[in-house]
Prior knowledge:
The chain is mainly α. It has a single domain (89-373), classed as Four Helix Bundle (Hemerythrin (Met), subunit A) (Up-down Bundle), CATH 1.20.120. 46% of the residues lie in helices and 2% in strands. The protein is built from 15 helices and 4 strands. The strands form 2 sheets. A two-stranded antiparallel sheet has the order 1-4. Helix 4 (130-148) packs parallel to helix 8 (239-261), helix 5 runs antiparallel to helix 6 (194-202) and helix 6 (194-202) runs antiparallel to helix 7 (215-230). The longest helix has 23 residues, at 239-261. The model is unreliable at 1-17, 24-29 and 35-54 (pLDDT under 50). PPIases accelerate the folding of proteins. It catalyzes the cis-trans isomerization of proline imidic peptide bonds in oligopeptides. It comes from Raphanus sativus.
Amino acid sequence: MEPPKDQNTPEKSSSGSCTNCGEPTISEPSPLASLPEMSPPPNYRPIRAPAINLPHNSQAIILSPVPHAEQVPVLSPPYQFEPPVKRIHSPDDIRRFHESPSFNNFLGFIVSLSESIRGHKISDPCHVSPTVASIVSTLDTLLQWIDEIPPVQMSSRYGNVSFRSWHERLAERGESLILEILLLPDDESLRGSTIEIAPYFFDSFGNSSRIDYGTGHETNFAAWLYCLARIGIVEEGDHHGVVARVFVKYLELMRKLQMVYCLEPAGSHGVWGLDDYHFLPFIFGSSQLVDHKYMKPKSIHNDDVLENFSSEYMYLSCIAFVKKVKKGLFAEHSPLLDDISGVPNWKKVNSGLLKMYRVDVLEKVPIMQHFLFGSLIKWEE
Protein backbone atom coordinates (compact mmCIF):
# COMPACT_ATOMS: atom_id res chain seq x y z
CA MET A 1 0.00 0.00 0.00
CA GLU A 2 1.35 3.39 -0.94
CA PRO A 3 2.06 5.71 2.00
CA PRO A 4 -0.57 8.44 2.38
CA LYS A 5 0.15 11.71 0.63
CA ASP A 6 0.92 14.83 2.64
CA GLN A 7 -2.16 17.00 2.77
CA ASN A 8 -0.27 20.15 3.80
CA THR A 9 1.57 20.78 0.55
CA PRO A 10 1.26 24.49 -0.29
CA GLU A 11 -0.44 25.42 -3.55
CA LYS A 12 1.49 27.35 -6.16
CA SER A 13 -0.17 30.30 -7.85
CA SER A 14 0.26 31.19 -11.52
CA SER A 15 2.29 34.25 -10.50
CA GLY A 16 5.06 32.04 -9.04
CA SER A 17 4.16 32.79 -5.37
CA CYS A 18 2.89 30.46 -2.68
CA THR A 19 -0.77 31.12 -1.88
CA ASN A 20 -0.12 30.26 1.79
CA CYS A 21 2.91 32.40 2.58
CA GLY A 22 3.43 34.61 -0.47
CA GLU A 23 7.06 33.53 -0.89
CA PRO A 24 8.52 32.96 -4.37
CA THR A 25 8.16 29.38 -5.65
CA ILE A 26 10.35 29.67 -8.75
CA SER A 27 14.10 29.83 -8.39
CA GLU A 28 17.36 28.24 -9.48
CA PRO A 29 17.33 24.41 -9.03
CA SER A 30 19.46 22.64 -6.43
CA PRO A 31 22.68 20.83 -7.44
CA LEU A 32 21.05 17.40 -7.35
CA ALA A 33 17.82 18.50 -8.96
CA SER A 34 19.79 20.11 -11.81
CA LEU A 35 21.28 16.82 -12.94
CA PRO A 36 19.65 15.91 -16.28
CA GLU A 37 17.90 12.56 -16.14
CA MET A 38 14.14 12.82 -16.05
CA SER A 39 11.46 15.34 -15.14
CA PRO A 40 9.43 15.10 -11.94
CA PRO A 41 6.02 13.44 -12.33
CA PRO A 42 3.35 15.96 -13.37
CA ASN A 43 1.37 15.54 -10.15
CA TYR A 44 4.39 16.33 -7.91
CA ARG A 45 4.27 19.66 -6.11
CA PRO A 46 7.39 20.45 -4.05
CA ILE A 47 7.01 21.43 -0.42
CA ARG A 48 9.09 24.48 -1.22
CA ALA A 49 10.90 25.72 -4.28
CA PRO A 50 14.58 24.87 -4.72
CA ALA A 51 16.68 27.31 -2.78
CA ILE A 52 17.67 30.69 -4.17
CA ASN A 53 20.98 30.95 -2.31
CA LEU A 54 22.69 27.78 -3.48
CA PRO A 55 25.99 26.54 -2.06
CA HIS A 56 28.83 28.16 -3.98
CA ASN A 57 30.17 24.81 -5.21
CA SER A 58 26.95 23.53 -6.83
CA GLN A 59 28.48 23.70 -10.31
CA ALA A 60 31.46 21.64 -9.15
CA ILE A 61 29.05 18.98 -7.86
CA ILE A 62 27.13 18.90 -11.12
CA LEU A 63 30.28 18.58 -13.22
CA SER A 64 31.94 16.01 -10.96
CA PRO A 65 31.93 12.42 -12.32
CA VAL A 66 29.84 9.83 -10.49
CA PRO A 67 32.23 7.68 -8.39
CA HIS A 68 32.33 3.96 -9.12
CA ALA A 69 32.87 0.95 -6.86
CA GLU A 70 36.43 -0.32 -6.60
CA GLN A 71 37.71 -3.61 -5.24
CA VAL A 72 39.94 -3.06 -2.20
CA PRO A 73 43.55 -4.07 -2.95
CA VAL A 74 44.46 -6.42 -0.09
CA LEU A 75 48.03 -6.27 1.24
CA SER A 76 50.07 -9.42 1.73
CA PRO A 77 52.78 -10.00 4.33
CA PRO A 78 55.42 -9.02 5.13
CA TYR A 79 53.69 -5.86 6.30
CA GLN A 80 55.42 -2.54 6.86
CA PHE A 81 53.03 -0.73 9.16
CA GLU A 82 53.91 2.84 10.14
CA PRO A 83 52.39 5.63 12.24
CA PRO A 84 50.08 7.57 9.89
CA VAL A 85 50.73 11.29 9.47
CA LYS A 86 48.99 14.34 8.03
CA ARG A 87 49.94 15.26 4.46
CA ILE A 88 47.27 17.67 3.23
CA HIS A 89 47.88 21.37 3.82
CA SER A 90 46.70 23.11 0.62
CA PRO A 91 44.41 22.74 -2.42
CA ASP A 92 47.45 21.44 -4.33
CA ASP A 93 47.74 18.60 -1.83
CA ILE A 94 44.03 17.86 -2.30
CA ARG A 95 44.52 17.63 -6.06
CA ARG A 96 47.51 15.33 -5.58
CA PHE A 97 45.48 13.04 -3.34
CA HIS A 98 42.55 13.00 -5.77
CA GLU A 99 44.80 11.94 -8.63
CA SER A 100 46.22 9.01 -6.66
CA PRO A 101 45.16 5.34 -6.63
CA SER A 102 44.68 5.66 -2.85
CA PHE A 103 41.86 8.16 -3.35
CA ASN A 104 40.10 6.10 -6.02
CA ASN A 105 40.35 2.96 -3.93
CA PHE A 106 39.06 4.65 -0.76
CA LEU A 107 36.13 6.38 -2.48
CA GLY A 108 35.46 3.19 -4.45
CA PHE A 109 35.22 1.32 -1.13
CA ILE A 110 32.51 3.72 0.03
CA VAL A 111 30.63 3.26 -3.26
CA SER A 112 30.92 -0.51 -2.85
CA LEU A 113 29.43 -0.26 0.64
CA SER A 114 26.60 1.84 -0.78
CA GLU A 115 25.87 -0.69 -3.51
CA SER A 116 25.93 -3.61 -1.04
CA ILE A 117 22.87 -2.26 0.80
CA ARG A 118 20.92 -1.32 -2.33
CA GLY A 119 17.32 -2.46 -2.11
CA HIS A 120 17.78 -3.94 1.39
CA LYS A 121 16.11 -3.01 4.65
CA ILE A 122 18.26 -2.82 7.76
CA SER A 123 16.55 -5.90 9.22
CA ASP A 124 17.10 -8.04 6.10
CA PRO A 125 19.29 -11.12 6.70
CA CYS A 126 22.95 -10.60 5.81
CA HIS A 127 26.27 -12.35 6.29
CA VAL A 128 27.70 -11.46 9.71
CA SER A 129 31.30 -12.64 9.93
CA PRO A 130 33.14 -12.95 13.26
CA THR A 131 34.92 -9.68 12.39
CA VAL A 132 31.65 -7.81 11.81
CA ALA A 133 30.18 -9.24 15.01
CA SER A 134 33.31 -8.22 16.95
CA ILE A 135 33.18 -4.64 15.64
CA VAL A 136 29.50 -4.38 16.62
CA SER A 137 30.37 -5.68 20.09
CA THR A 138 33.13 -3.07 20.39
CA LEU A 139 30.71 -0.28 19.49
CA ASP A 140 28.25 -1.64 22.07
CA THR A 141 31.01 -1.34 24.66
CA LEU A 142 31.54 2.31 23.71
CA LEU A 143 27.78 2.86 24.04
CA GLN A 144 27.86 1.37 27.54
CA TRP A 145 30.61 3.78 28.57
CA ILE A 146 28.24 6.71 27.95
CA ASP A 147 25.91 5.35 30.64
CA GLU A 148 28.87 4.93 32.98
CA ILE A 149 30.14 8.49 32.41
CA PRO A 150 27.10 10.78 32.82
CA PRO A 151 27.24 14.43 31.69
CA VAL A 152 27.94 17.08 34.28
CA GLN A 153 25.56 19.95 34.87
CA MET A 154 26.55 22.90 32.68
CA SER A 155 24.95 26.14 31.59
CA SER A 156 26.42 26.17 28.08
CA ARG A 157 24.46 24.77 25.16
CA TYR A 158 27.33 22.77 23.64
CA GLY A 159 30.38 20.92 24.90
CA ASN A 160 29.80 18.86 28.03
CA VAL A 161 33.23 18.21 29.53
CA SER A 162 32.31 14.65 30.47
CA PHE A 163 32.95 13.81 26.82
CA ARG A 164 36.64 14.26 27.57
CA SER A 165 36.42 11.58 30.25
CA TRP A 166 34.72 9.27 27.75
CA HIS A 167 37.48 9.99 25.22
CA GLU A 168 40.19 9.39 27.83
CA ARG A 169 38.79 5.92 28.44
CA LEU A 170 38.79 5.36 24.67
CA ALA A 171 42.48 6.29 24.53
CA GLU A 172 43.27 3.96 27.46
CA ARG A 173 41.35 0.90 26.30
CA GLY A 174 40.87 1.43 22.57
CA GLU A 175 43.99 -0.41 21.44
CA SER A 176 43.04 -3.57 23.33
CA LEU A 177 39.57 -3.43 21.77
CA ILE A 178 41.13 -3.16 18.31
CA LEU A 179 43.46 -6.09 19.01
CA GLU A 180 40.45 -8.28 19.81
CA ILE A 181 39.25 -7.60 16.26
CA LEU A 182 42.64 -7.91 14.57
CA LEU A 183 43.59 -11.22 16.14
CA LEU A 184 40.36 -13.04 15.25
CA PRO A 185 42.11 -14.68 12.26
CA ASP A 186 44.85 -15.87 14.66
CA ASP A 187 47.50 -14.03 12.66
CA GLU A 188 50.13 -12.54 14.96
CA SER A 189 51.62 -10.57 12.04
CA LEU A 190 48.60 -8.26 12.27
CA ARG A 191 49.34 -7.25 15.89
CA GLY A 192 51.72 -4.52 14.77
CA SER A 193 49.02 -2.88 12.63
CA THR A 194 47.60 -1.12 15.67
CA ILE A 195 50.29 1.55 15.31
CA GLU A 196 48.69 2.53 12.01
CA ILE A 197 45.03 1.58 12.41
CA ALA A 198 44.36 2.88 15.94
CA PRO A 199 44.69 6.61 15.08
CA TYR A 200 41.84 6.34 12.55
CA PHE A 201 39.72 4.64 15.19
CA PHE A 202 40.45 7.24 17.87
CA ASP A 203 39.57 10.06 15.44
CA SER A 204 36.24 8.45 14.51
CA PHE A 205 34.27 9.69 17.52
CA GLY A 206 34.88 13.42 17.67
CA ASN A 207 37.53 15.73 19.09
CA SER A 208 37.97 15.71 22.86
CA SER A 209 39.56 19.18 23.02
CA ARG A 210 36.91 20.99 20.99
CA ILE A 211 34.14 18.58 22.07
CA ASP A 212 32.84 18.47 18.52
CA TYR A 213 32.06 15.99 15.77
CA GLY A 214 31.59 16.23 12.00
CA THR A 215 31.97 14.58 8.61
CA GLY A 216 35.76 14.46 8.98
CA HIS A 217 35.44 12.17 12.00
CA GLU A 218 32.85 10.08 10.16
CA THR A 219 35.30 9.79 7.25
CA ASN A 220 37.93 8.52 9.69
CA PHE A 221 35.58 5.71 10.69
CA ALA A 222 35.17 4.80 7.02
CA ALA A 223 38.98 4.95 6.68
CA TRP A 224 39.37 2.63 9.67
CA LEU A 225 37.04 0.10 8.04
CA TYR A 226 38.95 0.52 4.77
CA CYS A 227 42.23 -0.23 6.58
CA LEU A 228 40.69 -3.42 7.97
CA ALA A 229 39.72 -4.32 4.40
CA ARG A 230 43.27 -3.60 3.20
CA ILE A 231 44.70 -6.22 5.55
CA GLY A 232 41.94 -8.72 4.73
CA ILE A 233 40.09 -8.52 8.05
CA VAL A 234 36.98 -7.13 6.31
CA GLU A 235 36.20 -8.99 3.08
CA GLU A 236 34.00 -8.02 0.15
CA GLY A 237 31.33 -10.44 1.33
CA ASP A 238 31.15 -8.48 4.60
CA HIS A 239 30.13 -5.20 2.96
CA HIS A 240 26.39 -5.65 3.46
CA GLY A 241 26.97 -6.46 7.14
CA VAL A 242 29.40 -3.56 7.51
CA VAL A 243 26.63 -1.15 6.50
CA ALA A 244 23.55 -2.85 7.98
CA ARG A 245 25.16 -3.88 11.27
CA VAL A 246 28.40 -1.96 11.87
CA PHE A 247 27.54 1.45 10.45
CA VAL A 248 24.00 1.39 11.86
CA LYS A 249 25.50 0.71 15.30
CA TYR A 250 28.08 3.47 14.77
CA LEU A 251 25.27 5.88 13.90
CA GLU A 252 23.44 4.88 17.08
CA LEU A 253 26.59 5.51 19.10
CA MET A 254 27.29 8.90 17.54
CA ARG A 255 23.73 10.12 18.02
CA LYS A 256 23.89 9.20 21.68
CA LEU A 257 27.26 10.95 22.06
CA GLN A 258 25.85 14.03 20.33
CA MET A 259 22.76 14.15 22.51
CA VAL A 260 24.27 13.24 25.89
CA TYR A 261 27.46 15.32 25.65
CA CYS A 262 26.05 18.06 23.39
CA LEU A 263 28.82 17.76 20.81
CA GLU A 264 29.21 20.86 18.69
CA PRO A 265 29.06 20.43 14.90
CA ALA A 266 32.62 20.48 13.56
CA GLY A 267 32.97 22.86 10.63
CA SER A 268 29.27 22.91 9.91
CA HIS A 269 28.05 24.66 6.77
CA GLY A 270 25.25 26.00 8.93
CA VAL A 271 21.87 25.99 7.24
CA TRP A 272 23.51 25.10 3.89
CA GLY A 273 25.08 21.89 5.07
CA LEU A 274 23.48 18.57 4.26
CA ASP A 275 23.51 17.75 7.97
CA ASP A 276 25.31 19.14 11.02
CA TYR A 277 27.14 15.89 11.74
CA HIS A 278 26.74 13.15 9.12
CA PHE A 279 26.93 12.48 5.40
CA LEU A 280 27.49 8.75 4.78
CA PRO A 281 24.14 7.50 6.17
CA PHE A 282 22.40 9.67 3.58
CA ILE A 283 24.43 7.93 0.86
CA PHE A 284 23.79 4.44 2.22
CA GLY A 285 20.18 5.25 3.03
CA SER A 286 19.37 6.59 -0.43
CA SER A 287 20.89 3.41 -1.91
CA GLN A 288 18.53 1.33 0.24
CA LEU A 289 15.57 3.10 -1.36
CA VAL A 290 16.63 2.83 -5.01
CA ASP A 291 13.72 1.32 -6.99
CA HIS A 292 11.46 1.22 -3.92
CA LYS A 293 7.94 0.63 -5.17
CA TYR A 294 6.23 3.27 -3.07
CA MET A 295 8.61 5.60 -1.26
CA LYS A 296 10.00 8.52 -3.25
CA PRO A 297 12.33 11.35 -2.20
CA LYS A 298 9.28 13.52 -1.50
CA SER A 299 8.08 10.93 1.05
CA ILE A 300 10.36 12.47 3.70
CA HIS A 301 7.65 15.10 4.25
CA ASN A 302 5.12 12.47 5.35
CA ASP A 303 5.36 11.99 9.10
CA ASP A 304 3.58 8.61 8.92
CA VAL A 305 6.25 7.32 6.55
CA LEU A 306 9.04 8.51 8.88
CA GLU A 307 7.38 6.98 11.94
CA ASN A 308 6.77 3.58 10.33
CA PHE A 309 9.89 3.12 8.21
CA SER A 310 12.78 5.09 9.77
CA SER A 311 13.94 2.00 11.68
CA GLU A 312 14.47 0.20 8.35
CA TYR A 313 15.91 2.94 6.14
CA MET A 314 18.86 5.10 7.17
CA TYR A 315 17.87 8.08 5.03
CA LEU A 316 14.45 8.26 6.70
CA SER A 317 16.10 7.76 10.09
CA CYS A 318 18.37 10.74 9.43
CA ILE A 319 15.43 12.93 8.40
CA ALA A 320 13.44 11.89 11.48
CA PHE A 321 16.43 12.68 13.72
CA VAL A 322 16.89 16.12 12.12
CA LYS A 323 13.22 16.91 12.67
CA LYS A 324 13.52 15.76 16.27
CA VAL A 325 16.50 17.94 17.20
CA LYS A 326 15.73 21.02 15.10
CA LYS A 327 12.74 23.26 15.62
CA GLY A 328 10.78 25.22 13.04
CA LEU A 329 9.97 24.58 9.41
CA PHE A 330 12.04 21.83 7.80
CA ALA A 331 12.48 23.96 4.67
CA GLU A 332 14.07 26.70 6.76
CA HIS A 333 16.49 24.73 8.98
CA SER A 334 17.36 22.09 6.33
CA PRO A 335 16.84 23.71 2.90
CA LEU A 336 19.32 21.46 1.10
CA LEU A 337 17.59 18.29 2.30
CA ASP A 338 14.29 19.89 1.38
CA ASP A 339 15.60 20.63 -2.12
CA ILE A 340 16.78 17.05 -2.55
CA SER A 341 13.25 15.85 -1.81
CA GLY A 342 12.31 17.37 -5.18
CA VAL A 343 14.63 14.99 -7.07
CA PRO A 344 12.45 12.51 -8.99
CA ASN A 345 14.04 9.22 -7.90
CA TRP A 346 16.42 7.69 -5.37
CA LYS A 347 18.98 6.56 -7.92
CA LYS A 348 19.57 10.16 -8.86
CA VAL A 349 19.71 11.18 -5.19
CA ASN A 350 22.30 8.48 -4.47
CA SER A 351 24.59 9.37 -7.39
CA GLY A 352 24.25 13.07 -6.58
CA LEU A 353 25.14 12.52 -2.92
CA LEU A 354 28.22 10.51 -3.87
CA LYS A 355 29.35 13.41 -6.05
CA MET A 356 28.55 15.87 -3.28
CA TYR A 357 30.53 13.80 -0.75
CA ARG A 358 33.56 13.96 -3.01
CA VAL A 359 33.28 17.74 -3.46
CA ASP A 360 31.93 18.82 -0.07
CA VAL A 361 34.01 16.51 2.14
CA LEU A 362 36.96 14.89 0.35
CA GLU A 363 37.94 18.09 -1.49
CA LYS A 364 37.78 20.40 1.52
CA VAL A 365 41.15 21.35 3.02
CA PRO A 366 39.66 22.22 6.48
CA ILE A 367 38.32 18.65 6.68
CA MET A 368 41.06 16.69 4.91
CA GLN A 369 43.97 18.49 6.60
CA HIS A 370 43.36 16.12 9.51
CA PHE A 371 43.30 12.98 7.35
CA LEU A 372 46.12 10.50 7.93
CA PHE A 373 48.35 8.60 5.52
CA GLY A 374 50.52 5.53 6.14
CA SER A 375 51.18 2.22 4.43
CA LEU A 376 47.48 1.33 4.14
CA ILE A 377 46.31 4.67 2.76
CA LYS A 378 49.42 5.80 0.96
CA TRP A 379 50.44 9.33 0.11
CA GLU A 380 51.70 9.29 -3.46
CA GLU A 381 54.63 11.64 -4.02
